[in-house]
């Protein structure tokens, strides 16, 4: 798969077991692979580690959890972790970035609340705000709207569109939420097809992929 040279959004589709999450884990260096993968540079992905990889991409796995109480603002500022290293500390500039990120996702009023007390949709916006602080050219999102209601699904995709069109980032997003895709700029990539290719998003293209996935089971 070769992405367009300009920043873009790619919705990665497919049945359960088609390899959507596996693809993201390969791109984040969590799984070995055969062949060649390059992320905006000449270096092979398998040679990138730590800060070198963090400069290329940010990753949001499926619904994160937190086992202890932490104010939202403190959780969001941790998105600057890879910019400071293990022994680094967060300064006023980092907290200003965190406040701006919370403002962008629309939950600045929740900055001092305990993350565990938020709704599922609010928590997901917190994770997205944290991800945005990594300021990488490529963001990988694994089912970011899973189990969210219509309001929060819309908010998530509005934020993704802003990352692409305003911040000039490329976003790869696995999703089963085909209902939210018509009208978005970008591409579809259906991993359940024998030869997956990038297809420009349109209402007709979304309907075609929906019918394909509904007609064919995970094993075809």
TrEMBL record:
The keyword Ubl conjugation does not apply. Keywords: ATP-binding, Nucleotide-binding, Translocase, Transport. This is ABC transporter ATP-binding protein. It comes from Hymenobacter polaris. One of its GO terms (molecular function) is ATP hydrolysis activity. It holds the Pfam family ABC_tran. Gene3D superfamilies: P-loop containing nucleotide triphosphate hydrolases. Residues 1-218 form the ABC transporter domain. InterPro entries: AAA+_ATPase (IPR003593), ABC_transporter-like_ATP-bd (IPR003439), ABC_transporter-like_CS (IPR017871), P-loop_NTPase (IPR027417). The lineage of its organism: Bacteria, Pseudomonadati, Bacteroidota, Cytophagia, Cytophagales. Part of the ABC transporter complex HmuTUV involved in hemin import. Responsible for energy coupling to the transport system.
């Amino acid at each position: 798969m070769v992405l367009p040279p300009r920043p873009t959004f790619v919705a990665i589709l497919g049945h359960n077991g088609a390899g959507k999450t596996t693809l993201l884990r390969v791109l984040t260096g969590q799984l070995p692979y055969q062949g060649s993968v390059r992320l905006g540079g000449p270096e092979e992905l398998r040679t990138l580690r730590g800060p070198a990889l963090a400069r290329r991409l940010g990753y949001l796995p499926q619904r994160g959890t937190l086992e202890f109480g932490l104010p939202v603002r403190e959780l969001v500022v941790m998105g600057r972790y890879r910019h400071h290293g293990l022994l680094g500390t967060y300064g006023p500039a980092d907290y200003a970035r965190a406040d701006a990120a919370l403002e962008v996702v629309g939950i600045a009023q929740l900055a001092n609340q305990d993350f565990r007390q938020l709704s599922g949709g609010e928590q997901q916006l917190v994770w997205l705000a944290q991800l945005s602080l990594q300021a990488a050219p490529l963001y990988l999102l694994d089912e970011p709207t899973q189990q969210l209601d219509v309001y929060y699904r819309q908010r998530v995709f509005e934020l993704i569109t802003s990352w692409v069109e305003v911040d000039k980032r490329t976003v790869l997003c696995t999703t089963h939420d085909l209902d939210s895709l018509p009208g978005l700029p970008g591409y579809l990539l259906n991993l359940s097809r024998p030869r997956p290719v990038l297809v420009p998003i349109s209402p007709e293209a979304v309907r075609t992929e929906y019918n394909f996935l509904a007609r064919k089971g995970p094993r075809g």
